[in-house]
Specification:
Elements lengths: L7 H15 L3 H5 L9 E6 L5 H12 L3 E6 L11 H11 L2 E5 L3 H10 L4 E3 L7 H15 L7 E5 L4 H13 L2 E5 L8 H9 L4 E4 L2 H5 L4 E4 L10 H8 L6 H4 L7 E4 L11 H4 L6 H21 L1
Parallel strand pairs: 1-2, 1-3, 3-4, 5-6, 5-8, 6-7, 8-9
Helix pairs in contact: 1-6, 1-13, 3-13, 4-5, 6-7, 6-13, 7-8
The protein binds phosphoric acid mono(formamide)ester (CP).
The site of phosphoric acid mono(formamide)ester has 8 residues, from helix 3.
């Protein structure tokens, strides 16, 4: 359900398979041309999506499988059918469920009652599929050994930040979080990562925390469901990733953003369209990382 519930070898295996599928060596990676033929994935969305929806659909189809999309408000979930009953029924029809929901409890309930794999397509607490794509991108640009690298998150400690923090425990990079008081990353994520050997540095000085970074990451200041947009904008304005802030990172640092971006808010055009940006590689890697996730979930 997030990167604290998977061991490093399994995570590496998913990423390696994603890299192999991206290189087109699917036959090597899986031994078959259409390895998911006869398999069906259902995608449940209670929140908006472009990348997650399209990349999962394309991934499934390219691997030979089938996909069904359930919009939360158009299924019986939207009229009060329980997650538990939905999980039991879907388990009789399909081979895996991906769910995007605000509440981590709903994801956990789906996983508890389903008898098939359940994939976390984002909750307010975590976004592991995104961070697997981010890790693929970082490995492509900085090499597969990420120990000793520095990744700086600038912005509020949101669901994506939480999954990045957990990734640091698997890959040995230093994770720095620049965020204002009141919008810090989840304490549970930080404590789990530290207990598992990660070096996590938190503070409220983005310039100091970006200094010497190999990778700078940010995200929208107002996530789906956040109510206090004006207050968040005021708090987060000093954390904008702009050309001046990027100048403190290493000259060959990469810039990442999971998208959608709010240009002029958390990032300037000059950065997202500039030489450090790898955001289009990152977006593409959603497709490849999720192929790795699907192959692991459905084939082992
Ligand atoms: N980054 C991400 O999850 O994009 P979508 O909201 O478009 O799926």
């Amino acid at each position: 359900l997030d990167l604290d519930q998977i061991d490093t070898d399994t995570l590496l295996g998913i990423l390696e398979r994603g890299h192999a599928l991206k290189r087109g060596t699917a036959a090597v990676a899986l031994g078959l041309d259409k390895p998911l033929a006869g398999k069906t994935l259902v995608l449940i969305f209670e929140k908006n999506s472009t990348r997650t929806r399209v990349s999962f659909e394309v991934a499934m189809r390219q691997l030979g499988g089938d996909v069904i999309v359930l919009e939360g408000d158009k299924s019986q979930l939207g009229r009060g059918e329980t997650i538990a009953d939905t999980a039991r029924v879907l388990s009789r029809y399909v081979d895996a469920i991906m769910i995007r929901t605000n509440a981590p409890e709903k994801l956990a309930e789906m996983a508890h009652y389903a008898t098939i794999p359940v994939i976390n397509g984002l909750t307010d607490a975590a976004h592991p599929c995104q961070v697997m794509a981010d890790l693929m991108t970082l490995r492509e640009h900085k090499g597969t050994d990420l120990s000793g690298r520095v990744v700086t998150w600038s912005g509020d400690g949101n669901n994506v930040a939480n999954s990045w923090i957990k990734a640091a425990a698997h890959f040995g990079f230093e994770m720095r979080i620049a965020s204002p008081d009141g919008l810090r990353a989840d304490r549970g994520a930080v404590e789990w990562a530290q207990a598992n050997g990660a070096r996590i540095v938190e503070g409220s000085d983005p310039e100091a925390l970006v200094t010497g970074a190999d990778c700078v990451v940010t995200d929208t200041w107002v996530s789906m469901g956040d109510q206090d947009a004006t207050n968040r904008h005021n708090l987060l304005r000093p954390y904008q990733v702009n050309e001046s802030l990027m100048a403190h990172a290493k000259p060959d640092a990469v810039f990442m953003h999971c998208l959608p971006a709010h240009r002029g808010e958390e990032v300037t055009d000059g950065v997202i369209d500039g030489p450090h940006s790898v955001v289009w590689d990152e977006a593409e890697n959603r497709l490849h990382a999720q192929k790795g996730v699907l192959a692991w979930s459905l084939l082992g």
